[in-house]
Amino acid sequence: MPQLTPFYFFNEVTFAFVILLITIYMLSKYVLPRFVRLFLARTFISKLFN
Fold first, then answer.
1. Which of 17, 22, 36, 39 has its CA at 20 to 30 Å from residue 8's CA atom?
2. Which residues cross the membrane (predicted)?
3. Is 20 left (phi over 0), alpha (psi -120 to 50) or beta?
């Protein structure tokens, strides 16, 4: 089991950190702004008809 060998700790931590950074960047750049725009559009539309 390579995850228990201390030699592989640095590789696994580095890979996990890089994947985490890429995931956070993709969420903050592309996914979350789309949800914010959708929420704002729905809020403005609901205020328009009230």
1. 22
2. 6-27
3. alpha
Tell me the per-residue pLDDT of 1-50, one tens digit each, with 9 for 90 and over: 666 777 778 888 899 999 999 999 999 999 999 999 999 999 999 999 87
Give me 39's structure tokens. 């929420």
Residues 6 or more apart in contact with residue 2 via CB below 8 angstroms: 8
3-state secondary structure 11-47: HHHHHHHHHHHHHHHHHHHHHHHHHHHHHHHHHHHHH
> Contact 12/3 with Cβ under 8 angstroms?
yes
